[in-house]
Amino acid sequence: MSVQAANESGIGRGATVRAAAVGRRFVTPSGTIEAVRDFDLEIADGEFCVIVGPSGCGKSTLLRMIAGLDTPTSGELSITAHNGSSPTNAVVFQGRSLFPWLSIAANVEYGLKLQGLAKSGRDATVARLLAVLGLSKFANAYPHQVSEGMRQRVAIGRALAVEPDLLLMDEPFGALDEQTRFILQEELLRIWESSGKTVVMITHSIDEALVLADRVVVMSAQPGTVRAIIDVPFDRPRTMVAVRSDPAFGDLFNQTWDLLRDEVTRARQQQEGALVG
Ligand SMILES: Nc1ncnc2c1ncn2[C@@H]1O[C@H](COP(=O)(O)OP(=O)(O)OP(=O)(O)O)[C@@H](O)[C@H]1O
Ligand SMILES: [Mg+2]
Fold this sequence. Notes:
The protein is of the alpha/beta class. It has nine helices and nine strands. It has a domain at about 5-90 and about 165-170 and about 195-275: Rossmann fold.
């Protein structure tokens, strides 16, 4: 995939995300769960922001609120598009983003149909994106006929097809083998670098966070809040190899893991406490 090909896919510019003291409580039959508390963050137009945090700390809840699929119970969350219009977003969830009864091409085309785009425009966009993602040969295959890595590419293609201002990804590569993950990370880097989109991505991998992000947000154990924000200084355009061989990589990795380890330990203590109590 080339940067030129990605440019030709016609991807626009991004959105700004502002979260001020955002909180989310869930009232359940067994009590109230405070998933997110006092979450403050500003994500710049065009930024690649990666969120890490212990399991259950509220990452998916936060992403769902940014996507407009859920609403904060306190605080303010605002998303502003670069051109003043209503911001659009697309979400890539892990492993369950495709319609199994539609071909690969029809999955990528789906959102464009919803947008009311004419057939010729849809066909052109789908063909370009399939080429960018190395899937042209599989246009007529069905999701169950391709590998997990390919399905995840289709899911990303489907999200990109609608040219969202904001691309939201919840552990998009979590289920993939390491080699496929590396390939997709680099593909995502190329697409993003030429698109100007704002990306918010959740991962459990510190390594992945440092390869992709402009900033890594480390969330605390539940209730999730911002524990730290780490600036990732590596030059763009990036390659995984260049980032990993940069002398600063090891320090940043350790710094991130130190913060995360504290929170993971706290989360485990909470869970053990809940089991005992
Ligand atoms: N709809 C809901 N109703 C009740 N509780 C919920 C709901 N959604 C999330 N929670 C709770 O909120 C907390 C945060 O969940 P969330 O899925 O956001 O965590 P996460 O950081 O994405 O975890 P993981 O890394 O395991 O995906 C958890 O305690 C979860 O049980
Ligand atoms: Mg989650």
